[in-house]
Design brief:
single chain; 369 residues; mainly alpha; Farnesyl Diphosphate Synthase; 2 domains; two-stranded antiparallel sheet; 2 strands
Amino acid sequence: MIEHVEAVIAPPTFEEVYSQKLEIVQAGVADLAELVRAEASQHGPYIDASTEAYLSILEGGGKRTRGVLAVAGYELWGGDANDGVIGLAAAAIEGIQTYALVFDDAADRSDTRRGQPAAHIRMTAYLQDLASPEDAVHLGQHIAMNEALTNQHRVQRLLARLPASADRRLLAIDVLNDLMVLTGIGQQLDMFSTVRSDTTTEDARKIAQLKTAYYSVLMPLQIGAALAGAPAHELPSLEEYAVPAGYAFQMRDDILGTFGVEGEMGKSNKTDLMEGKRTVLYLTAYEAATESQRHVLQTALGNTALSDEHLAECQEIMRVTGVYDSMVVYAESYAQQAANNIGYLADERPMKHIQFLQQMALYGARRSK
């Protein structure tokens, strides 16, 4: 007699679950792009051109971690990710991220974004082809930024009209605006830090909390949870996960900003130093360095003509002082802390959703791009 043995189905991997959530986000982004193009087409070819500059960034790919986290927050509180609500909300969050990237690229004088022309560069080229005005660069920047601002209002409108109850929509919009205010303050502090010689590691951590933990982790999670019906008084508890997860992500970002493989990151590994960013990595290395090593680091910071050899010297200092290894350990430690902290929901929420967020924090600390 042949005994029947039932096949054991392995649970989906983190990559598979991430991919499933990403599909929902991508579908929402496609719907948002269609809406934006349809509105722009009513206003003639010039608006079409500025719209395409913005959409080139929105549709240009990326990990879309914020959109994925919005889906995760929605599902964590019992939302059905296929009901049409969170896909559009996640797309709105990605639209806000695009708005921020357009402004960042113009402010940082970055010519590219993910290996493609930045939005202001596209507009500059369009203006030069159109009439070759003397101020094409200046005008291109401002048209790209105005287009991004226009679409920031479009996505706010999209959130306000989601097919969800009014109280859930209002709570999600409140979350968005409260945390975007803090993000804006973080961005200003970050810009000030490039000209402040007295910036400390604590200053850098505060910037990471405002710009990364709140904006990239807490905001999408809380918006997703709010739209699924989480009461307002329960949303602040997600900060216990978001802050260490954000620190882990930012520390890894700092490491990749100096040690990453350029072709994988979509930007040069000289960028952080050339832009004068006083990251936790840089500041910790500076504190640990000898006088001669400090001179090497100091002359690299803000040096727009930074050579490969000078970068290599900075990298070596960060290694020999032990700072590189300690940052890797710190990032992992913060990720583990985030994973432990989200466990408080284990008795209330499906474990598979909690485990995804735990794996997401670890992914942020270990990613290679």
